[in-house]
Design a protein that fits this description.
Layout lengths: L4 E3 L2 E5 L5 H11 L7 H10 L4 E6 L2 E11 L19 E9 L8 H15 L4 E6 L4 H6 L3 E2 L6 H4 L7 E6 L2
Parallel strand pairs: 5-6
Antiparallel strand pairs: 1-2, 2-3, 3-4, 4-5, 6-8, 7-8
Length: 171
């Protein structure tokens, strides 16, 4: 459940308030079709700081992840500020974003493993997410499966036509 190290020049570490401006800038570069306000990033850090990490390289941030306990089958709409849930039933990965140069480096796989350990420590039965930008295959390699549930169609609308709700069982 510690920090995942990929190589001497690229390490996952806990996100801080001082990282928020750089994280927002990364989001604008990596996900231009899915803009979110600075308030969303600050909200996720306040909501569950232990689920927010940055991929720090020698010359700046290379990526980030935002995750938190949430309600299963209830993905929050894009660009929404959230309140904590009293009885979470899933560990939700809001966003895992990596600059193109870091993709394929093992950074994504490393942090997903750390998050799975954190979810298990919270006694949550699964992890969920909304896959965008043709990332379904990456998530499938991490053990997630697509949940084709018509009841989720409206909830996924803000994420675009290609969005897929995915689940990973942690039992």
């Amino acid at each position: 459940m510690g920090i995942a190290t990929l190589n001497p020049s690229c390490t996952w570490r806990p996100m801080t308030g001082g990282d928020l401006r750089a994280v927002k800038a990364l989001a604008d570069i990596i996900h231009p079709a899915f803009p979110e306000s600075s308030a969303v990033f600050a909200n996720r850090l306040a909501l569950h700081a232990s689920g927010c990490e940055v991929l720090d390289g020698d010359d700046g941030l290379k990526g980030y992840v935002l995750s938190h306990p949430w309600q299963d089958r209830a993905p929050p709409p894009l660009d929404a500020v959230l309140e904590p849930v009293a009885s979470p039933s899933t560990y939700y990965i809001h966003d895992l974003a990596l600059l193109p140069a870091t993709r394929g480096s093992g950074a994504g796989k490393a942090i997903v493993g750390v998050l799975a350990d954190r979810a298990r420590a919270l006694h949550l039965p699964n992890m969920t997410l909304v896959a965008v930008n043709n990332s379904v295959h990456f998530w499938q390699r991490q053990g997630f499966t697509v949940s084709d549930d018509p009841a989720l169609t409206a909830k996924l609308a803000s994420y675009g036509d290609q969005a897929r709700f995915m689940t990973k069982d942690l039992s």
